[in-house]
């Protein structure tokens, strides 16, 4: 167990809560290493179907830990490939939902964007303020935000370092929905339970296919999607899902 986060199970859902509220859940190297080590086996576990990533009322995460980074040199950062491990988190195949209240800044905003989608509480504030510290985003901000909200707005966010509120984030497609703060975690857990109720391999492929839309030319993406669609006709999930529809009953995906 880590003092930087907790992991609790809600049926087939793993809820990951950052627990450094005094530092506004700033992300340090220990937290990253421990979090990824603990989540890796859960990602592969057949009885975990979805992750929910959250923080505290005041902050989802206010970025990488500035105290930890402040004395580092170029040699230190490049030598240890600082924060490269977050790509492992991004690549977990289980669907991940971010439930964001308060600040999601710098690495915190990037952590939210590494999840497959974001639900925001009304207090959520997103930003990439690294330029104010004399650096730029380092765990995907310039890339993922640009793909999510387009160049003009992403450029403005990275160059000015300003924050956007939950409504603006909804309007530009950074987040999927906005909920009252006290309901956003519950909404994320409900979505997660729905997702975890489906066959895990099918949810993993659906997630991967959507991400491929950002990575592949359209023709390649369409072909990849169609081939995966065909391959699912070799699964219990397809037989069960379609049989249950025709027999007017709920499907039972527990064998997947
Ligand atoms: C370390 C942090 C922190 C951070 C806040 N704290 N953010 N500590 N790293 N990223 C600490 C403060 O030092 C303070 O500690 C306590 O949390 C509360 O913060 P305050 O500043 O007192 O609160 P407030 O006035 O409400 O301002 C909130 C805030 C501000 C707007 C979020 O804290 C802020 O601007 N934080 C930095 C945000 C940022 O620049 N993030 C990007 C980091 S770079 P004490 O001990 O004084 O109470 C990054 C790069 C990612 O993320 C890429 C890496 C490869």
From TrEMBL:
Q: Does the keyword Zinc apply?
A: no
Does the record carry NAD as a key word? Answer: no
Per the UniProt record, one Pfam family is: ECH_1
**Superkingdom of the organism of origin:** Bacteria
Q: Which UniProt keywords apply?
A: Lyase
Annotated InterPro entries = ClpP/crotonase-like_dom_sf, Enoyl-CoA_hyd/isom_CS, Enoyl-CoA_hydra/iso, Enoyl-CoA_hydra_C
Q: Which PANTHER family match?
A: ENOYL-COA HYDRATASE, MITOCHONDRIAL, ENOYL-COA HYDRATASE-RELATED
**Family to which this protein belongs:** Belongs to the enoyl-CoA hydratase/isomerase family.
Protein name stated in the entry:
Enoyl-CoA hydratase/isomerase family protein
Q: What species was this sequence derived from?
A: Falsiruegeria litorea
